[in-house]
Write a structure and sequence with these properties.
Layout: E1 3-5, H1 7-16, H2 20-25, E2 32-35, H3 36-48, H4 52-68, E3 71-72, H5 76-92, H6 98-109, E4 113-115, H7 119-122, E5 130-131
Parallel strand pairs: 1-2, 1-4, 2-3, 4-5
Helix pairs in contact: 3-4, 5-6
Length: 138
C-alpha cells in the first residue's frame, strides 16, 4: 500500500522544516505520492504568498516535492470512485470539502492510505486508511 500526502501534511512540513529531503526521509521506505488537486493547492498557496522571501522558500519546497514524487492523475477510475463517495457521503449527511473528496477518491482509486492532519474530515470517508506523520502532529 502506498501513501498519498494531503495538503495539510505538506504545509506543516514546509512550515516546520522547510527541508524537502528531511521531509521525504521521514516516510522511510513508504512509496509516497500526491493527488493532482493537492499539487494545485500547494502551487496556489505559493502564488498567494505576499512575502517574497517566504514565497521563494515555499516555492523551492513545493518544486522539490513535485520533482521528486509522483502526482496521481484524476482520470476516469478516480472520477468513478469520486462519484461513489460523493453519493454515499451525501446520503449519510456526512459530506466533506470538495477538494478533500477529490483527494480521498484518488487515494482509494489507487489503493493507497492517506496521510493528513485533517483526520476529523477524512475519517468520514468509508474505507479510507488514515496515517499520521509524527513530525506534523506536534
Amino acid at each position: 500500500m502506498g501513501l498519498v500526502l494531503d495538503t495539510s501534511i505538506i504545509i506543516a512540513a514546509e512550515r516546520r522544516a522547510g527541508d524537502f529531503a528531511r521531509f521525504l526521509d521521514s516516510w522511510g521506505e513508504e512509496a509516497v505520492a500526491i493527488a493532482a488537486i493537492t499539487a494545485s493547492e500547494v502551487l496556489h498557496g505559493c502564488l498567494r504568498t505576499r512575502d517574497a522571501a517566504v514565497r521563494a522558500r515555499r516555492g523551492a519546497f513545493v518544486e522539490a516535492l513535485l520533482d521528486a514524487i509522483p502526482v496521481l492523475p484524476f482520470g476516469l477510475p478516480e472520477a468513478r470512485r469520486h462519484a461513489d463517495l460523493w453519493a454515499e457521503l451525501m446520503k449519510r449527511g456526512t459530506m466533506i470539502g470538495p477538494h478533500d473528496l477529490l483527494v480521498a477518491a484518488t487515494a482509494l482509486a489507487h489503493g493507497h492510505a492517506l496521510a493528513t492532519l485533517n483526520r476529523r474530515e477524512f475519517a468520514r470517508v468509508p474505507g479510507l486508511v488514515l496515517r499520521q506523520w509524527a513530525e506534523g502532529a506536534r
